[in-house]
Amino acid sequence: CPQTEEEWMRVSTTFERTTRFPSCLGAACARHIELRKASKADSDYLNERRRPSVLLTAVVDSNYEFLVVDTCPSGHLSEDNPPNRILERKLRTTKLPCQLNSNQLPYVFVADESFKLQENFMVPFRAVNDKGGEANKLFNRQLVRANQRAAKTLAIMAWRFGVLQTPVNLEAKKVQTIVKACCYLHNFFKRESAYYIDSNMEAVIKADMAPIVWGPNTTVIPHINNCDSDPQY
């Protein structure tokens, strides 16, 4: 995880160059990794669908690598404790860059609709009305494209680490450790192995939208519809 303002600003510069989204510190995401079963002591791991799962929240850079990773019981996710709060607690030890002047856009993270709109978390407009509709639609399109960095990173990792594609038959705390290990190994192989990103992964990166490869039984937090499918764009 970047620790200084300069490191975060380098992330932002690369993100703007590759996604055309300015002053972006990364793409935030939240996903449920489903457990095959949970004991009575693991009631905190029941999500909103009453299925046992571990919640992965993360921030990804433009190079499809994890910057921030956290795993916790999915029962900790609520209206009062959205994924934003979980990531903000992880970011307390870092120094995020500040807006230098009134002409510069503030630094933000881009996220999907599972996150709450905050000063430092940008999410899509939930409804596009007649007033400002085209501008809002264009903003949603650019934000979704930028946030696809996170969705594609998750797709690549799940493709390479098949344990994430189906409900995991292990204790919940062990699954938390496994998910973190997968994220760290993803970064390591992404940097060190020329074979980690094969032709299938290249296709995922070039696609407009990331495929859902978390398995038919795994809960995926929904995000906004693909704006690229709109015939006007």
UniProtKB/TrEMBL annotation:
Cofactor(s) the protein requires to work: a divalent metal cation
GO molecular function, one term: metal ion binding
Gene Ontology CC entries for this record: nucleus
Major place of residence: nucleus
Record flagged with keyword Zinc: no
Domain DDE Tnp4: from-to ranges: 32-187
Entry keyword annotation includes Nucleus: yes
PANTHER family: NUCLEASE HARBI1-LIKE PROTEIN, PTHR22930
Top-rank taxon: Eukaryota
InterPro entries on file: HARBI1-like, HARBI1_dom
Protein name (Swiss-Prot/TrEMBL): DDE Tnp4 domain-containing protein
